[in-house]
Specification:
about 375 residues; alpha/beta; two-stranded antiparallel sheet; about 20% strand; globular
Length: about 375
């Protein structure tokens, strides 16, 4: 699973470099997210999504200048599993291709940089994950610090429960408020045909105190893809491109014991560097697999204060409605872009996370052209 990475910022715009090239998301597609896709391989799950996203632009695989994917060999249970997924893309004739052992949001970051440098005009970014074959809670322990945490085998739900309890002890939330977040998210997912869980759900049974089953994401399989394009190419391929105005990712300390689990300074810094605080947004797609994590993100992004008034948070239902590991963060960017393309949003924030307790965080600011 993904380990720690260095923080990264968007390319600078110093006097010698001139203005940044415009890059936009011009198409987004995703699979129906299900509890188990045992009848399908990763390639069979991914191919319909790739065909869908390319058909939205009228492009063929051979028209794409750069391809980048995000997935995890730990989920697949075999090394270099991502090479099999290339069968769904078509790797012959040879293509310019890259892969990150991260959520697809980080693959989008790499493709975005590629387009900014002028080395590509279009890019295909995809991600997929099948969590159903193994025990996801055990698999995710492989992300932990190998000296102090991993030998104890704390799983992802137990660590999220520690974070939730820290928030409750600090007076920042309570179990009733957490249940309200779950109900709001899954009610919003009623309008999302791809969501795994839809409609109001009960708080559920206690799982790891103070978290109940309703506070946790569903385990499921799914895939997603986006097409990026630069400048006039984006305008030609899409009626209303979702322009990436800023994109940045940061990381917290790997050791949980030295972190304040009630806050996410890496999210705040990434948002600042992406230009999020310059003007209000109307939509925020937050990658918060646990209800308590949405509380942390809302505080870091000032969405609980006056600036957050009127912001539609996770209109897709978010990760509480569908959480395909390695694709859920890319889906947040895709959902935000799709709202801009449909004219339902003018300026949106999209967030992706990886690692325990919001360890790594990526923030993108997307905008549509004035109407």
């Amino acid at each position: 699973m993904p380990g720690p990475s260095t923080g990264s910022t968007g390319p600078s715009t110093g006097p010698s470099t001139g203005p940044l090239r415009e890059v936009a998301i011009v198409a987004f597609g995703q699979s129906d997210h299900v509890r188990s896709s045992a009848e399908s391989s990763e390639v069979e799950m991914l191919m319909p999504v790739l065909h869908d996203v390319l058909s939205r632009t009228g492009l063929k695989a051979g028209d794409i200048d750069f391809t980048c994917s995000g997935s995890s060999d730990y989920l697949a249970g075999r090394a270099f599993s991502f090479t099999m997924a290339l069968d769904g893309v078509g790797a012959w004739p040879p293509i310019s291709e890259s892969h990150v052992e991260m959520d697809g949001a980080w693959a989008l970051y790499e493709a975005w940089v590629k387009l900014l440098t002028g080395e590509a005009e279009t890019a295909l970014v995809y991600a997929y994950g099948k969590s159903s074959p193994g025990d996801l809670r055990e698999v995710l322990t492989r992300q932990l610090d190998p000296y102090y945490l991993a030998p104890l085998w704390p799983d992802s739900v137990a660590l999220a429960a520690l974070q939730a309890q820290a928030l409750i002890d600090a007076g920042l939330t309570d179990e009733r408020a957490l249940a309200g977040i779950a109900a709001r998210s899954r009610t919003a997912a009623e309008a999302n045909p791809h969501a795994q869980l839809r409609g109001a759900v009960p708080a559920g049974d206690p799982l790891v105190a103070p978290l109940r089953t309703g506070d946790c994401p569903p385990i499921g399989d799914g895939a997603a893809a986006v097409v990026l394009a630069a400048g006039d190419t984006a305008r030609r391929l899409c009626d209303r491109p979702a322009w990436i105005r800023g994109l940045d990712h940061r990381i917290e300390a790997h050791a949980l014991g030295v972190r304040d689990l009630t806050d996410s300074p890496s999210t705040r810094l990434a948002a600042e560097r992406a230009g999020y605080f310059e003007r209000p947004v109307d939509t925020a797609e937050l990658h918060a697999p646990f209800t308590s994590q949405e509380v942390v993100l809302r505080r870091a992004l000032a969405l609980d204060g006056p600036d957050g008034a009127g912001v539609c948070i996770n209109p897709s239902g978010g990760a509480l409605a569908a959480n395909p590991v390695m694709a859920a963060g890319l889906i947040r960017l895709g959902e935000a872009a799709a709202r801009i393309q449909r004219g339902e949003s003018d300026r949106a924030l999209a967030h992706a996370t990886s690692g325990p307790c919001l360890q790594q965080n990526l923030v993108a600011v997307l905008e549509g052209e004035a109407r």
